[in-house]
Specification:
Strand content: 25-35%
Family: Belongs to the zinc-containing alcohol dehydrogenase family.
GO molecular function: oxidoreductase activity; zinc ion binding
Helix content: 25-40%
Order of helices and strands: EEEHEEEEHEEEHHEHEHEHEHEHEHEHE
Mean pLDDT: 96
InterPro entries: ADH-like_C, ADH-like_N, ADH_Zn_CS, ER, GroES-like_sf, NAD(P)-bd_dom_sf, Zn_alcohol_dh
Cofactor: Zn(2+)
Organism: Candidatus Pullilachnospira stercoravium
Low-confidence stretches: none
Largest sheet: 7 strands, mixed
Number of helices: 11
Structural class: alpha/beta
Length: 352
């Protein structure tokens, strides 16, 4: 089969590799679309892979091409995606259903061969079937939805309150939608991009806040009658938004950091004191899994995608490129700010 193989730093070659088969308990998937995740970029551009050569790709969609002995969950022809985490299932964290925290895990498209290829093989328990009315493009974007929902679950989210979502990227848009699906009184998206804020309104946000404005905090607090937000979700991983999260929180609020910072994060004593004085709860969120594996995050994404309540917008996708142009696709990330949205690698034969 053909695959986009990372053979050296900044070198992705579209080449012939051995085609895998489905052993017992395994499912072989013919890949339609495979998204480039933010975590893939340093793997290719900054010597970030675990070994060479490696086929990356863990956000994908396709059709079941072959099932191994004992597989009953899916059949040949089913439209599916895959949960990429391969937890050990033996450690204390796994035994308690905290699969994201497993220290002995493997991972599709990182620690073993992934979906930037004609075919990928994964265990039956990792296969997520979904309604064929859902496009392959949408099917390749299950993971950001599940990451968002995991954040809500980590934050003990309940409907009826006001919700602030800091960061209007893909995860932020799904976070806002999940908050509304489960009963937010008001969901507000904060971002610096007018295009993202427009998308947030289109997807159902009751209000949006342009954080480039000098008075954005006053505008935001006015939406809550000056009380602050009951739930705050930081999805951008930026120092400024993490600090803003503390300021936006209401008394006894619940604050969740979904975004991952890439710079040193510091708070002034006055900023940090927000947590003491307001007595808000602060938690982090990592990946997107719960018990029974892979979890309700994946099951509910399939359900609400199918009902149309969890919306997918073409603006989520920056560009679709042939799998054969994977090298060119990764080079695009060397230009800061060029890629706005998901870049999908597409295999031939699916009409995408």
């Amino acid at each position: 089969m053909k695959a986009a193989v990372v053979t050296a730093n900044e070198e992705v070659r579209y080449m012939e590799v051995e085609e895998p088969s489905a052993g017992p308990g395994m499912v072989k998937i013919r890949v339609a679309a495979s998204g480039i995740c933010g975590s893939d970029i340093p793997r290719v551009l900054h010597h970030g892979v675990h070994f060479y050569p490696i086929v990356l790709g863990h956000e994908f969609s396709g059709d079941v091409a072959e099932v191994g002995e004992g597989v009953t969950k899916v059949k040949v022809g089913d439209r599916v995606t895959g949960a990429p985490l391969l937890p050990c299932m033996k450690c204390d964290d796994c035994q308690n259903g905290n699969y994201s925290l497993c220290r002995h895990y493997s991972f599709i498209g990182s620690r073993q061969q992934g979906s930037n290829a004609d075919y990928v093989v994964i265990p039956e328990q990792n296969v997520i079937p979904y309604d064929p009315s859902i496009s392959y493009e949408q099917g390749a974007m299950f993971e950001p939805s599940t990451v968002a929902l995991h954040g809500l679950l980590q934050n003990d989210y309940r409907g009826g309150g006001t919700v602030a979502v800091l960061g209007g990227g893909t995860v932020g848009m799904f976070t806002m939608q999940w908050a509304r699906i489960f009963g937010a009184a008001k969901a507000v998206v904060f971002d610096i991009s007018s295009r993202r804020l427009e998308l947030a309104r289109r997807l159902g946000a009751e209000a949006v806040i342009d954080t480039t404005k000098e008075n954005f905090m006053e505008e935001a607090m006015a939406l809550t009658g000056g009380k602050g937000f009951d739930y705050v979700f930081e999805t951008a991983g930026q120092v400024s938004t993490m600090q803003t999260a503390f300021a936006l929180a209401a008394n006894k609020a619940r604050v969740c950091f979904i975004g991952t910072p890439h710079e040193n994060l510091t708070f002034t004593p006055a900023q940090w004191e927000n947590m003491n004085r307001k007595e808000f709860h602060l938690t982090g969120s990592w990946m997107s899994y719960s018990s029974p594996f892979p979890g309700k995050e994946w099951e509910l994404t399939a359900h609400y995608y199918a009902t149309g309540q969890l919306k997918f917008d073409p603006d989520f996708i920056y560009k679709k490129m042939p799998m054969s142009q994977a090298q060119e696709a990764f080079q695009m990330f060397k230009t800061p700010g060029l890629v706005q949205g998901k870049l999908l690698l597409i295999n031939e034969g699916f009409g995408l």
